[in-house]
Design goal:
By secondary structure, the protein is an alpha/beta fold. The chain has 4 domains: 204 residues, P-loop containing nucleotide triphosphate hydrolases (Rossmann fold), CATH 3.40.50.300; 162 residues, P-loop containing nucleotide triphosphate hydrolases (Rossmann fold, 3-Layer(aba) Sandwich), CATH 3.40.50.300; 77 residues, Arc Repressor Mutant, subunit A; 91 residues, Orthogonal Bundle (Arc Repressor Mutant, subunit A), CATH 1.10.10.10. It has 23 helices and 22 strands.
Length: 606
Amino acid sequence: MPDLQEILRTRFGFDAFRAHQQEACAAVADGHDCLLVMPTGAGKSLCYQLPGVARGGSVLVISPLISLMEDQCLKLIEQGFKAARVHSGRPREESRQACFDWRDGELDFLFIAPERLRVPGFVEWLTRRRPGLIAVDEAHCISQWGHDFRPDYRLLGDRLGALRGVEGASGEARPHSPVIALTATATPTVQNDIVRQLGLHEARKLTHGFRRTNLGVEVMELKPSQRGDAVCKLLTDGANLPAIVYVPSRKECEALAARIAEFTPCMAYHAGLSAGNRDDAQAAFLSGDVSVIVATIAFGMGIDKHNVRTVIHTGLPASVEGYYQEIGRAGRDGKPSRAVLMWSWADRRLHDWFLERDYPPVDAMRALFGALSSRATDFESLGAELNLDASTLGGRVDKLSALGAARVDADGFITRGEHGWVEDYQRQVDHKREQTDRMVNFAQGNTCRMAALVAHFGDREDEGRPCGKCDVCAPQRCVLKSFRAPVEKELTVLRMIVGSLLERDNQSTGKMYRDNFDEKQLTRRDFEELLGALEQNGLVYTTQDEFEKDGRTITFRRASLTPAGQETGTELEGAIMLPGVKPAKKSATKKRPASRKRAARGKVDR
């Protein structure tokens, strides 16, 4: 094997590998298939770039993100490599030339978008030169259990065999070109699905580095009407800048960006803006011309800004995976940073509405499937027959296509696929609901936030120790929460909880609530908040448990007293504090000079 350390120094300009990079590079350079799960900003790209150079030949990189593809390709060119990309945003002649350069062995790296695999003859053209290595970036997109599933990625499983070739005439054949699949957000379930979908051969599964030692996570339950004030309060403190604020809707994005622009340079970023306006906002944020971006989830993929101090969510994300990826954009320079999540049960109801919108009833999907046949039909005719607009029809066809129940050719014509898709469709719906359940459990949780995130991704090397920085481990460090003494009514409930655990430890929290409280006098949410306060004050600890019911895994929590809780007993007055919201500083309403205000507003509306 070539000297990887020497290649790292001479070709990439680094004196040493970052944590866990060398293990992945060595495995791939030696010809092993590999699934690499490492967080955003941990240096995954080097783990295909360096082995590709070590193996010789050309590296084929499949990526769904045009912005990331452009960034990586240009950086490789700056480092002296020959790299090109083929995607919908490139001029046709330049894409054709890239294909010829690939065939002629003139490229070190070729980046392609997954939808190119649908173009007739494209895969056959690529096979004219066997790649030394194939890299599949954002590999979680191939899994229906991933948080960002993309139907085009399902083509990879069928196409990889032709792209990588097989050597060996007898026995168990070994693929000629190794494949490395890379992702920042894959649970153990998604990891197994990636390996299966891509047909990885005896894959090395490497999951590392999910603990962020410089990031403190803070979660606060707030009504939607209170969140704008809370965001402005946080961002008037220059120590919390630069910042990214994620919001649930485009309307909120525009409104909050305009409000923040009253006191600090800020721009909005969402999919409803023109490409030019989005590029302007991204460039201004990266250059430091604006210190805050208010964005929907459309922002951030491929963004490499190292000094982001704060990431704020003004609503509950749809999944823990997506949330972790977004907060991972804070503190890439290693300096102390903060992630603040504001949420309430109203967010949960909103996600239920999104689920019903995005995953229509089975009967509606059956109607679409029944309208298809072996004869190709176009979208316009199909939409007219079913009385569906183009956007709604496109979403439903994508779902049937991902299940193999519909086929869409390169010209956009649709034919019926295989039967037997209904059960898989229902599993997808259940999985999406479970993802939101897990996000709610995280927000409600009263154990170390970072330890909970690390455990979610199955990082087995992590010790699970408390981070010492989140709102659970270090409430005194909170930037949003403050704490107060409980009133007498709250003390009564707290004593009842502790008394119940003194009688019987390790109880299901749900059963404890039902056995001891009347929901008309104490809501389940208020019960959970007070139980959480006991945990945050070190008197109670909770653990996750599960059971199977009707083929589904149901998770729940158990509560037990800590040694301190057993010693304190029901004598809780003075022993416990409850969370509140810190009062806003006067500077939160301070106006900027008129000329500066107009400039900021111009940037928001541009």
